[in-house]
Amino acid sequence: FVLSLGKTSFGMSVFNLGNAIMGSGILGLAYAMANTGVVLFLVLLTVVALLSSYSIHLLLKCSGIVGIRAYEQLGYRAFGTPGKMAAGIAITLQNIGAMSSYLYIVKYEFPLVIQAFLRVDKPAGEWYLNGNYLVIIVSICVILPLALMKQLGYLGYTSGFSLTCMVFFLISVSPLITHTCEPDITCRASCVLPICRNIQTAYTIPILAFAFVCHPEVLPIYTELRKYKKMQHVANISIAVMYGMYFLAALFGYLTFYGEVEAELLHTYSRIDPYDTLILCVRVAVLTAVTLTVPIVLFPVRRAIQQMVFPNKTFNWPRHIAIAFVLLTFINLLVIFAPNILGIFGIIGATSAPCLIFIFPAVFYIRIVPKEEEPMRSVPKILAVCFAGIGFLFMIMSLSFIIIDWTSGSSKASSGH
């Protein structure tokens, strides 16, 4: 994982990183906006996007100095084996949570799509309408073959198609803002809250942080980029595009359902008309997008496992295949038994996301950049210290709010879909 000449183009790298950023997080943002208001949501989204871009800058600076393009190896260079293990565990937890949330959507939306295609008004327990069976079939037939690719760059075309599906999703749901207004739901401009604060606001920051976490994929994409000096531009463009898509998706979902929006947006849209052609196309597009995102997110987990368990082993096809198979099996079990997608967003976002976005890039930067080049009292290192402090505060705050939310009994995390 040292510096080498990559073969992936700038555009394909943007597609891959954008696809890594985008995922099921986009479907939880309307719920976040409903619990913060439009103005506060926009402020938080902007801050998290800027901080994510800055943390990628720190990672790339560290990588450029030591000539290493593996997150775990940066941890090893900074703190030895504990640093490598901490980075590997955080990446594993974060990306397993992400893949679980993607497949969770497949589990709940795929049966609705098939039901609409077959015009089944009252399901009678057919196996092909069982989400547990369908998520296993999708994992074996679609995700596993893509996850077995040797290099991440090969997935650039599927990433581009995945992003196209999400653009179609945004274009399609915008007319539903006026189409779905019913007499029993208040659909007036006065209903739009600029700022809203309630106990569910505790989930907003973790959901936003989870939505912008792409840091485990940054260095693998950096490794395969043909012109490696443009990696920061790749990151900035990807974050900017997803920033716009996130805000529009949240706004359209919020303006359509207001306080009635659920933690998983597509499940809310399914209340309109399950047989409507537009709604059906939206479901298919999002299902396709999140399914094609899973292989991208699986690559860093496999690399992290290899770095932690097989650090000195060269590439081996049986091990490559076995790790992917075991990971997908575990994630399928997690998806089948996970109680609610909001719990996944909240817990994972409140623990591993602060480490990957704030803490690790900052402390790696402080340790790796030589004091001769940047003394500890220099502005860049002072900013890095503050950045790490923000990460610790964010983790403590988010976990505290979620615990308070659960103990108060007002959390929707315990309710099923």
TrEMBL record:
Q: Which GO terms describe its biological process?
A: histidine transport
The Amino acid transporter transmembrane domain covers: 7-404
* Pfam families linked to this entry: Aa_trans
- From the record, give the transmembrane residue ranges: 12-32, 38-60, 85-105, 127-147, 154-173, 234-257, 277-299, 320-338, 344-370, 382-404
| Record key words, sorted | Membrane, Transmembrane, Transmembrane helix
Report the subcellular localization.
Answer: Membrane
Keyword check for Transmembrane helix, yes or no: yes
Q: Which GO molecular function entries does the Swiss-Prot or TrEMBL record give?
A: L-asparagine transmembrane transporter activity; L-glutamine transmembrane transporter activity; L-histidine transmembrane transporter activity
> What superkingdom does the record give?
Eukaryota
**Any one Gene Ontology cellular component term annotated for this protein:** plasma membrane
Q: How does it sit in the membrane?
A: Multi-pass membrane protein
* InterPro entries associated with the record: AA_transpt_TM
Q: What is this protein called?
A: Solute carrier family 38 member 3a
Q: Which organism is it from?
A: Scophthalmus maximus
From the UniProt record, report the name of the gene that encodes this protein. Answer: LOC118309751
